[in-house]
Amino acid sequence: MHQHHEPHRHAAPAPVKKPAAGVFPGLAGKFLLALLLVGAGFALYYGGSWLRFAFAPPLEQRKIVESPIRDDEWADLTAGLEKTSGAYRGRVGIYLKDLHTGKVWEYNSDRLFPSASLIKVPIMASVFEKIKLGAITLDTQIRLTRRGRVGGSGSLKWVRDGTSLSVMEIIYKMITESDNTATKMLIDYVGMDYLDESFKKLGLTYTNITPEGMSLSSGRVKKENYTTAREMAGLMERIYAGELVNREASEFMLDVLKHTKSRSRLRRGLPLGWEIGHKTGLLRRSCHDVGIVFSPRGDFLLAVLTSEVPDYTSAKNFIARVAKLTYAYYKIDAGFAESPRAAGSGPKAP
């Protein structure tokens, strides 16, 4: 494991104990029922994906990786990543972990960055904690009000006041479109105090949430939302392992992350047939992407966070360069990736 030198290191957040199986009894059935209750377009688009997941092999049935990345290749890859990261003019934090070999490379992985829309991943997990407690369900209806409407990314800002949407729909839009109105609807419904406490229970030491941090202001705010590359990658790893909230919730979250609509940053240049579940963030001169990549030589986590960037285009291009360099070492001669978790869904272009 390699760690880029930095002034101060923090201990990794304590692991979250895996919940007992069956905490979400009948979640798949409720999900499919909820699909019938919402708009047909959403059901047609998302239902097929869920059915594909429902009949996929269990998490434990990992496919053997025939050609994992070698030590010399890993050394070359990480040397290239360090050179590329050191040359960028903004602040950079990276966490890379090969989920097959366990190899880890870090670059300022504990440095604090404004979280921007990465905050929506722990918000999603916290909502599933509410579901686990029985306080709400996926088909709980939340009414959109004028007060709850927020600008920026997402399509819900154009929806008529008084429209009711299910928690499932709102989560989906919050992640796939990075919809700010969807995010505010969930925050208003579960409460900022609940989210603050839930983040701590999720084992997040440095990832926080404040009302000021949720502002879309382009300038500095008094109390910013912060996170680190390590903590965001840690959330993704627990989702991958089926251990964030519980197994069924993790599968749901992973499937939603695979439908993120962004085609830049980590998804840009993704080889044909590979899959990625990821979340982007962009706000106040910060630009991020954190994801789980399913490749033929082993699945891996890649979290790339930047701040104080010269401009958003350069930041997006930098993240894409980091991704491209990493992808090059995980390619094989096969025409399509055969990831343990992506297998069975068939090859598809990003």
Word description of this protein:
- With 350 residues, the protein is α+β, with helices and mostly antiparallel strands.
- It has one domain (23-329): Beta-lactamase (3-Layer(aba) Sandwich).
- It has helices at 27-37, 40-54, 71-87, 120-132, 167-176, 180-190, 192-201, 229-240, 247-257, 312-329; strands spanning 2-3, 91-98, 104-107, 113-114, 141-143, 164-166, 226-227, 275-283, 286-294, 300-307.
- It has a 6-stranded mixed beta sheet with strand order 1-3-2-10-9-8, with helices on both faces. A two-stranded antiparallel sheet has the order 4-7. A two-stranded antiparallel ribbon has the order 5-6.
- 45% of the residues are buried.
Question: How is this structure best summarized?
Answer:
By secondary structure, this protein is of the alpha+beta class. It is 37% helix and 14% strand.
Topology:
Blueprint: E1 2-3, H1 27-37, H2 40-54, H3 71-87, E2 91-98, E3 104-107, E4 113-114, H4 120-132, E5 141-143, E6 164-166, H5 167-176, H6 180-190, H7 192-201, E7 226-227, H8 229-240, H9 247-257, E8 275-283, E9 286-294, E10 300-307, H10 312-329
Parallel strand pairs: 1-3
Antiparallel strand pairs: 2-3, 2-10, 4-7, 5-6, 8-9, 9-10
Helix pairs in contact: 1-2, 3-10, 4-6, 4-7, 5-6, 8-9
